[in-house]
Amino acid sequence: MAKIKDTDYLGLSARIHAMEGNLVTRERLDRMLEARTVEDAVKILSECGYEELNRVTPDGVEEMLARRRAAVTAGLEGGLPDPRLLDVFKVQYDYHNLKVLLKAEAMEKDFTRLLVGTGRVSPQILKEAVSGAASLPKALAAALEEGRRVLAETGDPQRLDIALDRAYYAEMGQLAGETGSQYLMDYVSLLVDSANLRCLVRALRMKKNADFLKGILFRGGKVGHQGILAVANAGGSGLGELYAPTRLKEAAQLGADAVKGGGLTAFEKACDDALTAYLSGAKYVPFGEAPVIGYLAALEGELTNLRILLSGRLADLAPETIRERLRECYG
Predict the structure, then answer these.
(1) What gap in Å lies between CA 124 and CA 182, rounded to an integer?
(2) Which of 189, 206, 255, 293 is the most exposed place for a label (fewest CB within 10 A)?
(3) How far apart are CA 46 and CA 65, in angstroms?
(4) How many CA atoms lie within 13 A of 238 on its CB side?
(5) Which residue, 320, 268, 327, is CA-closest to 33?
(6) Over the range 154-190, which residues count as b (16 or more CB within 10 Å of their CB) and which as e?
(7) For residue 322, which of 331, 330, 311 has the smallest C-alpha distance?
(8) Sequence-distant (≥ 6) Cβ neighbours of residue 18 within 8 angstroms
């Protein structure tokens, strides 16, 4: 592929910055929390281009969010100077679908409703590949075989998740590297560091040591495995210091509190907020790949927030309980 310049994104960047105006802001989230009913809350989303729901149910919410993601993805396809930017954000759904299909095969159940149609490979092709009737791209095919092996040997769905997550982060890092975008590569590294920090905190809460962690840490982050394992062997001592030079400093401090018996909600939120803080500067970049990357990640964050808010409303949680779980908004 010919070298792509920032100026190749001039027209698209202007379009992306216009699309940012339809992102769900904190003010809109607050209005949704204060709406009289969950149906009234969903109506507020029409201001941002979301389809209306006649009846708000958990499945209906998931379908609405999936349609939103699909519409944005379809609108960008064909217009990107480097389509691999979009693949970096699509790849997670390939691996999600592979997890669903392998678990369905092992349990002899139909989990079709859990499949997501916004990956690089259609759910139908993945289903055919799992049954041996279709081929997949090399990395995904290798992940399928590894996932099936792990599940056959251990019978443990969590081990399957770890194996496929490892393949996911590896392929996402490869795709980001192929684009040559340092901004995107740093984003993926931060994702991996966040995932490893979550693994460390959960292992410490379970009183697990470095031997347990060795098999589940992911490669591609900037925080070295040796440092993470040393903290694990020390029972959590040094956790804050290890991440102090990184964007996950606050999350690590909250993680240290969680290890001592505190809750995980604030810690999980801080991990996601660190990613948003990294990306938010893209709003002020006039053109180039950064606004596209920032917007795509912002959309994923928006869908997460809407899932948290609407599932909370459906469960009749107090507005303040829901509010403390919401992630920071883009920008």
Answers:
(1) 34
(2) 206
(3) 13
(4) 11
(5) 320
(6) eeeeebbbbbbbbbbbbbbbebbeebebebbbebbbb
(7) 311
(8) none
Q: Where are the alpha helices (DSSP H) in the chain?
A: 10-19, 26-34, 38-44, 58-76, 84-107, 123-130, 138-154, 157-179, 182-205, 210-214, 225-233, 239-243, 249-259, 265-280, 289-314, 319-323
Note whether 273 and 265 are within 8 A (CB): no
| pTM for this model (two decimals) | 0.91
In tens, the pLDDT along 75-128 reads 998 889 999 999 999 999 999 999 999 999 998 999 988 999 999 999 999 999
**In sequence order, what are the residues at sequence separation of 6 or more whose Cβ sits closer than 8 angstroms to the Cβ of residue 140?**
94, 95, 98, 121, 171
**How far apart, in Å, are the Cα atoms of 99 and each of 6, 78, 142, 304?**
37, 29, 13, 20
Q: What is the mean pLDDT of residues 40-59?
A: 91
CA distance 195 to 134: 32
Report d(CA 302, CA 72) in Å as an integer: 13
Asked whether 315 and 205 are in contact (CB, 8 A), the reply is no
Tokens of 327: 């992630």
| Cα–Cα dist 290/75, whole Å | 18
pLDDT at 251 over 90: yes
- Mean pLDDT calculated for residue range 233-259: 95
Alpha-carbon distance of 148 to 191, in angstroms, equals: 25
Two tokens at 217? Answer: 């840490």
Q: Binning pLDDT at 50, 70 and 90, where does residue 162 land?
A: very high
| Phi, psi angles (nearest 5°) of residue 285 | -90, 120
Identify the pLDDT of residue 5.
86
114 closest CA partner among 106, 128, 104: 104
Please enumerate in sequence order all residues whose Cβ is within 8 A of that of 44, keeping only pairs 6 or more positions apart, or say none.
28, 31, 32, 35
Kindly give, in sequence order, each residue whose CB lies less than 8 Å from that of residue 257, ignoring residues fewer than 6 positions away.
266, 267
